[in-house]
Amino acid sequence: MKTDNYRVKVSKNVKLKSWTTDERGGMKKKEGKVWAKALADDLAHWQERLYAENKQSLLIVLQARDAGGKDGTVKHVIGAFNPNGVHIANFKVPSEEELAHDFLWRIHTHTPKKGMVAVFNRSHYEDVLVTRVHGMIDDQTAGKRLDHIRHFESLLSDSGTRVLKFYLHVSKAEQEERLQDRLDNPDKLWKFNEGDLTERALWDEYTSVYQDALTTSTAQAPWYVIPADHKWFRNLLISQVILDTLKDMNPQYPETDLNPEKIEIK
C-alpha cells in the first residue's frame, strides 16, 4: 500500500476535494480485515521495542468532524498496543485555568515521554478550528497560532518525538448516516449530541479551516488525509502508516551483559 499517496505535501494551498472519502484501496472488506489483523500483531511488536528502548517516542494526532471515527480508530488501531506504553488525551473545551495560559500550555504536558506512544483524540488543532469557525479568534490570530504549532511540533521532533497527524476524511452523507444510526440504536444514543447538528450546518466553514490546518504538514510532522467512509479501510491505512513509522524509527531492545546460559532457575 502506497501510504505516501495520502500524505499532505508541504504546501500553502491544500484542497480537501483533492482526496476522496470512500476509497477502499482496491480491496474487499474481508481481505482488508485479514491484513489489518496481521498489522496489529506487527504494531504490538514494534511498540514493545519502542517501550524497551526508552529513547524515542511517538505522538499520534487524530482530527475529524463529528462521527468521523476518532474513537473507532483508538479502539481498533491503538488497541493493538500494550496499554502500559500508551497515553491517550482528549482535548475538549478548555477550563478557566487552561484559558489563563497560552493555548499550547495544556497540550505540552500530555506529549509522550521516552518509550511511550501518546494519542491526541482531538488536539491542539482545536484552537485553530472551532475557535475560528465560531469567531473566537480572527484570521490573523489563527495564522500566528499555526506558526506556533509548526514550531511546537519541530521542538518535539528535535527532542526525539515523531509526530503523525491524521485527518479522518468523512463525507457529509456518511456523517449523516452515522449520526442517524446513533439516534436509531439505543446502545449508541448516549453518543448523540444535538450540538453536532450545529457544527454540521457549518460544514463548508470547517472545510476551509481544516484546509489551513493541513498546511502545517512537514517532513517532521506530516498530515495524512485518511478516507474514512469505510471504517475497515480507515483502520488498515492508519495502521500501515504507524507501522511504517515505527520501523523507520527502528527502536532496539537494550543491550545487556546478562548471559542466560549461566542462569539456572530452580
From TrEMBL:
Keywords noted in UniProt: Kinase, Transferase
Polyphosphate kinase-2-related domain span: 28-252
Gene Ontology molecular functions: kinase activity
Gene3D superfamilies: P-loop containing nucleotide triphosphate hydrolases (3.40.50.300)
Stored Pfam families: PPK2
InterPro entries: P-loop_NTPase, Polyphosphate_phosphotransfera, PPK2-rel_1, PPK2-related
Domain of life: Bacteria
NCBIfam families (UniProt xref): PPK2_rel_1
Record-given protein name: Polyphosphate kinase 2 family protein
Originating organism: Deinococcus arenicola
Native organism taxonomy: Bacteria, Thermotogati, Deinococcota, Deinococci, Deinococcales
